[in-house]
Amino acid sequence: MKALVFHGPGRRSWQEAPDPRLIDPGDAVVRVDAVTICGTDLHILGGDVPAVTEGRILGHEAVGTVVETGLAVGGVKVGDRVLISCITSCARCSYCRVGRYGQCREGGGWILGHLIDGTQAEYVRVPYADTSTYKLPDSVSDEAALLLADILPTSYEVGVLNGAVRPGDSVAVVGTGPIGLAAIATARLLSPSLVIGIDKAAPRLEAAKHFGADLVLTPGGDCEAQVMAATDGLGADVVMEAVGTPETFELCTRLVRPGGHVANIGVHGASATLHLESLWIKDVTITTGLVDTFSTPTLLRMTAAGRFDTGAFVTHRFGLHEMQDAYDVFERAADTGALKVALFRR
């Protein structure tokens, strides 16, 4: 088969790779019908995730068709159209039994495109297939389902729920790429009184308005003063970090009000300074998190009911064999205006 293979920081290749095969009885092999690229893949290519070794097939978000199952698989069958979750769950360990699937201790968690070969390929092996895939209704298109593999559950769980957004809250989202936009969209489910989107790129700020931001700002200059002015001089109740750089994290800690919450969503590859000399007295809560995807069934039902404008997330579409072109467009988002890119088997 063909696959997108990581060859060390800054190097990737769309090349021949061995076809996946069943290894454990709970495995399924899935033909990839639609796949996307995540900001985390760019972090990997930037050298920020050293656990990803040379030769790894990247990708952790896809929709496909089951073509083979192990003897222990009973929840899906050959021919089923499924969403492949970015998180793999054994369903048995102490973490999985309380819904913390991202911390699975039995070979699950975030493994696709990280510790094992991922989804940016023509076929992929999915461990624990019964609990790591979701059968899709006909009413949900492949493209819409792609957003449920990672960005919607990640933003909702790690941003909105970890950030404890409540009705009437003021919410600031730093970084309005795909994850930040999904954070804005899912925060709206909790009826905040004010949503602020902050980003350097004008096209992404325009997208933030479309997804429900009441106010959009660029970092630097009078950004902090404008946030304070919009929040009675206190700062936002909840600030979400959706970039993954020291500068954006530290900005978040300056924008949060006393008693507020900073929810870090971004993937970080460098140290950030935690200014406890100013934070200790403010009763601020800071959370980090890897998505668990416990919300995926709920978000899937909402998507089927038309509650999310999923079409607005995808700005560029490619054939699967145009993977290198798709990466080039996604990497240059500031120039291309790319949000999510979707690639389809044609």
UniProtKB/TrEMBL annotation:
Pfam families: ADH_N, ADH_zinc_N. It comes from Actinocrinis puniceicyclus. Keywords: Metal-binding, Oxidoreductase, Zinc. GO terms for molecular function: oxidoreductase activity; zinc ion binding. PANTHER family: NADP-DEPENDENT ISOPROPANOL DEHYDROGENASE, ZINC-TYPE ALCOHOL DEHYDROGENASE-LIKE. The keyword Metal-binding applies. The lineage of its organism: Bacteria, Bacillati, Actinomycetota, Actinomycetes, Catenulisporales. Its cofactor is Zn(2+). It comes from the Bacteria. SUPFAM superfamilies: GroES-like, NAD(P)-binding Rossmann-fold domains. SMART domains: PKS_ER. Residues 10-343 form the Enoyl reductase (ER) domain. Coiled coil: none annotated. The keyword Metal-binding applies. Belongs to the zinc-containing alcohol dehydrogenase family. This is Zinc-dependent alcohol dehydrogenase family protein.
